[in-house]
Design a protein that fits this description.
The protein is α/β, with parallel strands linked by helices. The protein is built from 14 helices and 11 strands. It has a 6-stranded mixed sheet, sandwiched between helices. It has a 5-stranded parallel sheet with strand order 2-1-9-10-11, sandwiched between helices. Helix 12 links the parallel strand 10 and strand 11 (about 320). Helix 1 packs across helix 14 (about 335-350) and helix 4 packs parallel to helix 5. The radius of gyration is 21 Å and the shape is globular.
Length: about 350
């Protein structure tokens, strides 16, 4: 009996990780009905982070009334297990919460993320794991810090004592610094609605905030890899909360003891919405590939769009396959029912690889 591991990232705006995995499983079992198919919902810190962790460790989802990036009231969730909380910042400060015509990172705030953190602390959590991904904001975490100050009825950050015994771990696949041409505003601002002039303003604002923060604390963490994640939220966690920064996929895979699951596996199927050379810069499928290489387990990569195929193959993927026919319009490819069908078909076809 073949043991096959399916660990596909979400196809953003189309399928969740669990939905993509299930479609692949159906395709495999159609060809190999007696195969052992292990489905692992995965995320590198963005969309699906909470679901992946709940699948891995259990825990209880907690609803909190918070402010979205435009300060509208919404209900967001985080996961709590014993004295640990897992937060997905996109639940409160995500780009998907803001309509395309409303997106403006000059005004978007991370205030809601701070409200989630404050609620977790009030509930006795002393370790908070934060997935940084999919944010609508570029406020360097200023909104988050203000929300925490407000939640504990303080006037300044120095008066906030409730975080002193709380350990923070931030998870991201982003290694960008806070400022400059490779920083949060320049690299990620445009996809959040920033015009070229807004990018200049956002970067200047980030520089001022980092300079003032460095003077206050006596140290400067704006250039630590990950500081530019989630519009500078990474910087706020590093500078103000002494957070540890790690790869999101490595943290998740270590939590679920992925190395153990790989034992006696015949193959791993992973994937994402769009795969190209950037996949090799620490994205989820690449993290899975690195783990599987150690155990000499081949990895098939599937995606809705493929570029740089040869580089992906040279990196070690056994096969790199686009799920969509070349003539399929993008608006059809993004329909969940079509994406599920195409994942199922390509998984069925490549089961013969085993």
């Amino acid at each position: 009996m073949k043991k096959i591991i399916v660990a596909i990232d979400s196809f953003k705006g189309c399928l969740t990780s669990a939905e993509a995995n299930q479609s692949a499983k159906e395709g495999i079992l159609a060809r190999m009905p007696d195969a052992e198919v292990i489905q692992i919902p995965v995320s590198d810190g963005g969309e699906g982070w909470l679901d992946a962790f709940q699948n891995a460790i259990g825990g209880l989802m907690v609803d909190v009334n918070v402010k979205d990036p435009l300060l509208r009231s919404i209900v967001a969730q985080y996961l709590i297990k014993d004295e640990m909380a897992v937060i997905e910042i996109a639940k409160a400060s995500g780009l998907t919460l803001v309509a395309p015509e409303e997106r403006n990172p000059i005004v978007a705030t991370s205030y809601g993320t701070g409200q989630l953190i404050a609620d977790a602390i009030r509930k006795g959590c002393n370790h908070i794991i934060v997935g940084l991904g999919g944010s609508a904001t570029s406020d360097c975490g200023i909104g988050m810090l203000r929300a925490i100050i407000d939640a504990f009825d303080c006037n300044t950050w120095d008066e906030v004592t409730s975080l002193r015994d709380v350990r923070f771990t931030i998870a991201t696949d982003v290694t960008n610094p806070l400022c400059g041409e490779n920083g949060a505003a320049y690299i990620f601002g445009p996809q959040k609605g920033a015009t070229p002039q807004m990018v200049l303003s956002l970067d200047a604002r980030a520089k001022r905030f980092a300079e003032k923060s460095a003077l206050h604390f006596g140290y400067d963490r704006q250039n630590i890899p990950g500081a530019g994640a989630a519009g500078g939220l990474g910087y706020a966690f590093l500078q103000y909360m002494n957070a540890a920064c790690c790869s999101g996929i490595d943290l998740l895979l270590n939590t679920i003891h992925f190395d153990e699951l790989l034992k006696k596996a015949s193959i791993v199927i992973t994937g994402e919405g769009s795969a190209d050379r950037q996949t090799l810069m620490g994205k989820l499928p690449y993290g899975i590939l690195q783990k599987a290489k150690v155990c000499d387990v081949p990895v098939i990569l599937i995606a809705g769009r493929i570029n740089d195929r040869q580089q992906l193959l040279e990196a070690g993927f056994s096969q790199v396959e686009c799920i969509n026919p070349p003539d399929l319009p993008i608006e059809d490819a993004m329909k969940p029912e079509i994406a599920k069908k195409n994942i199922k078909q390509i998984s069925l076809r490549h089961s013969s690889y085993l």
